[in-house]
Amino acid sequence: MKHSFLIITLGFALACCTPMQMDQMEHIDYSVIRQEAAGFSDLHKFDPLLDDFKDFLFFVDKKLTFRVAAISYPSVDPNGNRVEVSGLVYHPINRKSKGVINFSPPAHMDNESGSTDNLYNAGGILVMLGYTVIIPDLIGLGVSKHMQIPFLIAENTGRVVYDMHRATAQYLWDQFRFVFPSQVILMGYSLGGYVALSAQKYFETYHSNNIKVKEVLASSGPFDLTAAFEAFAKTGFSEYPAIPNIILAFKRYYFDDRGLPLDLEQVFKGELLNNYARWYDGSYKSDVIMEMLGANLHAYMHQDFFKPLAQHNEALKSLHPYLKENSLTEGWRPKAPIYMTHAKADTHVPVECSEAAVKKLRQAGAKISYVGYPGDHYTVGYVYFLRTFLRFL
């Protein structure tokens, strides 16, 4: 999927946002970690296979040059503690920017996969169509790789993306005297879809005067965490080791930081119970963790996890409020239109997550276009980005 994703994503951005001057955002300090200029001849830095497709990229401005910069900036963790975070900014040099796309990458379990660890992230290739592209690392990656990732903590995710937005605006003014447009497109797949919707909620709730979300393309994300846990409990099967990561993030920021107990002996079992601190310390990529855990949830989740929510033990019940708090399905009415798809046979993120989001947000008055496709978590990515490309054509 990786290589086709790059090519299809190129086409998607043919029609995005119209630049508009926005109200002044509050100043934020930032630092440039590193930056460099690049152009069409550097496409192989995004992916070596792109060299084989150069003759077919007729919609790419081959004379366009751009700058890519890794920047760091201050934000806060879920408990309001200051933390330095990082991300990437791509901006055209010899062409006027057509607008801003905030592209959120999929999930990473290891702390060496942040966008700023490699200047050429897949989503950044949209700059070749003349757009300014922002790719946030989020907490736990890049310069904050020493920290526990606040995995699926919605409001903090939105806040960190917003602060990256502010830092990007300041960086582009300082470097290019570029007046940041008010409109932005948010997009992402899998965890990136969750991040995109979290950012929409945060922008529209707190900063609608200076950021106008034009549209959100959020696909295959864990938008409803309660629905996700119920679906996993029903199937007892997961081909991605995200459940422990969610629980450990909640433990770190909602329990440990607040001096509250969470008995993991009532949550995990087997080898995971003995090794979770080491396996999820950021040293291992997701495929390595999957080799150690396996796809059978019964092998590492406590037996009470598979019971109805009302029959959960005390430790599992103590997680319920945070599952609800960090679901993106209640308590708001999205203003910008949302385009969402999901694989019907998704074994990474249950399709029930999108189905619940569509139902509840539509009831709140949101405008959502949704299609559930046959296939798994990866194959639906082809369909999703192709559908987006055709729509904008």
Could you characterize the architecture of this molecule?
- The protein has 393 residues and is of the alpha/beta class.
- The chain has ten helices and nine strands.
- Helix 1 runs parallel beside helix 10 and helix 2 (154-176) packs across helix 3.
Summarize the topology.
Elements: H1 2-12, E1 31-39, E2 65-76, E3 82-92, E4 100-104, E5 132-136, H2 154-176, E6 183-189, H3 191-206, E7 212-219, H4 225-235, H5 242-255, H6 270-279, H7 286-293, H8 314-325, E8 338-343, H9 352-363, E9 368-373, H10 379-392
Parallel strand pairs: 4-5, 4-6, 6-7, 7-8, 8-9
Antiparallel strand pairs: 1-2, 2-3, 3-5
Give the name of the CATH architecture of the largest domain.
3-Layer(aba) Sandwich
Which percent range describes the beta-strand content? Answer: 15-25%
Total strand segments: 9
What order do the SSEs take from the amino end to the carboxyl end, as H and E?
Answer: HEEEEEHEHEHHHHHEHEH
Q: What is the helix content?
A: 25-40%
Taken from the alpha-carbon principal axes, the silhouette is globular
Task: Let me know the CATH homologous superfamily of the largest domain.
Answer: Alpha/Beta hydrolase fold, catalytic domain
Main β-sheet description? 9 strands, mixed
Mean pLDDT: 89
Q: Helix count, per DSSP? A: 10
Provide the gyration radius in Å.
Answer: 20 Å
| CATH topology grouping of the largest domain | Rossmann fold
- Strand arrangement within the widest β-sheet reads 1-2-3-5-4-6-7-8-9
